Batch of 2 targets.
Target 1
Amino acid sequence: MGLFDKFNGLVAARSELGALRIDPFGVEIERIISPTEGIIHGRHTILAGTNNYLGLTFNPECLAAAHRALDAEGTGTTGSRMANGSYSGHRRLEEELAAFYGVRDAIVFSTGYQANLGMLAGLTGPNDVVLLDADCHASIYDGCRMSGAEVIRFRHNNADDLAKRMRRLGARATDTLILVEGIYSMLGDRAPLKEIVDVKREFGGYLLVDEAHSLGVLGERGRGLVEEAGVLADADFIVGTFSKSLGGAGGFCVSDLPELDLVRYSSRPYIFTASPSPATIASTRQALRVLAEGHELRARLRANFERLHSGLTALGYTLGAPPSPVIAVVFDDKVATLKFWRDLLDRGVYVNLMLPPATPNGVSLIRCSVSAAHTPGQIDAVCAAFADLRTVT
Amino acid sequence: MTGNSTFDYPQILAEICGELVKVTLGRIAIDEDTELLGDLNLDSLQVMNLLLHVEDRFDISIPVSILPDVKTVKDLALRIENLTREG
């Protein structure tokens, strides 16, 4: 088998898309106008698939902080956190994240993907057991694979199934790491966190909650599902990203366990990569302040996602979950979904296209993500495009 | 990772084939030499979901890490037989 033979399937799939005049994975935003608008294919387009939940990418205070850091500290750190890449801003952000959650410490990673990769590869090893929700993100699966830990899946959002697997582990359950997400990225459903915590209390073990899609979105202060469900103290590790509600790039893990600091020394994705740029750190620090005080932003976000959810429900679409900022429209037929995605873009609405095997249960998804920065008029325009296509299809 | 029961190879093989038939809807003949990815064209997620059902039947937990070494139905059956014995 030749070096490139493995790509034969990809080449065929890409040809199929080309024949349909669809390129969902190569979209170029020719000009970004605001958190919710851009120019795509020369057309003014509403962006409803960017995970920009609080719409902070153009926040004036965040922009100003980034500009100041850029001028004062340069374009990049050119080094690892373990070498020359830890500026005072990186450490202050870690302290501020720890204070935000009321825990001992935090580690900042260069991306959200690397936060999961770095935590799992640094924390667990070949003699450890990881029990993860079947619908966890690829970064979690990749981190598990990198760690060499024994990885066991439990049925999605099924605490009884988790308990069954904890029971089978016997004495090993007390050192097992349980992994769930606050809001799942594909369907937008939430973990039954109280029930998951009950299982942990019964069998022991440690709990890591990935709040990538729920940070800034859920909870009075935006601390995610752990706050909303009232179980913050039961989460041993909370992972999050800067690239969604914080409008930047990077990731973090916070924990009250003193051992968190040791992960820095064992985590290859932390050690062998350059640290986030000073401008990214500065805008993220400012965004975290805005997020913590962002009650109005969260109220606007909620009003927007409830407006879109009820609008699409009224049109008769099948949605993946109760209202959340991630609203997935479920389709059975892959080609029909591809055409639907293209037709939405032709009508000036950009959303995400999700296809098997990346999706749960082999479904195809048109995935919308809602922002606090969307206007009610933009939400209505998105609904109108879906209504138009409902008539067509 | 195991329950406290033991199962012999034919039982395990029959159970796996039964689950696979549900996925393939009987369109393809399945025996122990059938390749999960090559012959049945299953994707990785379908194989992992198949394991969830098999785990319940035998009261075991199957680590995801065994999958890279599982090519055929027989490979999977032998792995499960080992896991049930370990208990």
Target 2
Amino acid sequence: MHENKVIENFINGDPSAASALVLEYQDRIFNLCRYMLENPQDAEDAAQDTFIKAFQSRKSYSPDATFYTWLYRIAVNTCLDHKRKFTLRSLFLSDDKEAHINNIPSLAPSPEVAYATSQSMHALQNALNRLSAKLRVVIILNELEGLSYEEIAEVLDVSVGTVKSRIFRARDELRKNMKNSTEQK
Amino acid sequence: MRCSKAGKYLSSYIDHELDAQKVVLLESHLAQCELCSEELEQLRQLKGLFKHVQSFSAPASFRSKVTTQLENLPSKGFSLFPAFIRIAEAGAFVLAIAAGIMSGGMLINAIAPQHKGEQVMAALSLETFEALPPDSLGRAYLAVMEGRR
């Protein structure tokens, strides 16, 4: 069945269409949440919440935007909500903060990556974790999800110029953080 | 193009997001500027690292968990029947108010229809005005004062 028809059925509340869209987009949404949130369980919860919220707000979807940018927007906002809740919680519960640090996922390079690249990726991982949520999300959407600047602008509801500026700043910070990390060794 | 401007375009350039005119100007600058060329190479290396990053897949049970949650969502479909009931209730309330007003008017007319006009005239007439009604304190005072004279 053509995706447009599936989306149409989804908007009309067809459960099988919803299930089909989950199957189509679950990996992409989960991957995004995994890199936005440091805790694997939080990432899975956020990814599930994304699809639930998408179904509940399906009438708000407009064909002017592509379905996956609309879905990504819900995912990004859900992840930011989870981060805010964690920040509030960690202010009062020190145990949660320690667990958070221990659960930071690695970028998990493929096994065949050379040692030097592996070291660089370790530095990249640390640098990426130190980015603010605002800068991290544009890098993840661009580098890991392969979205264009225009698509990122649509997801974040900002101008293309803002996306360009944030990507420029994110890369600048990544390079500086990686350089500092290398010099400290 | 100066280095300060070229530096800002490098990020968009490696993402193929720079318009054609700026690409020409930037490439012309890069051909002459070793510093900006070096910065471009660093950005390419950084971008290259992301190609080795592993993509995470959703857990095997993810889809079934989501589907179960969707099935347990309370239905919020719009139904005409409850709306009809609400409209009928509102209509019945208005009718009850109107019936009460009308029956109250009819009751008043039924009790004293012939005196109604006389009562109105009596209320408006100055002849019916009594400055000192018989049982009033003022009448008693006058009686006392007249008795003293």
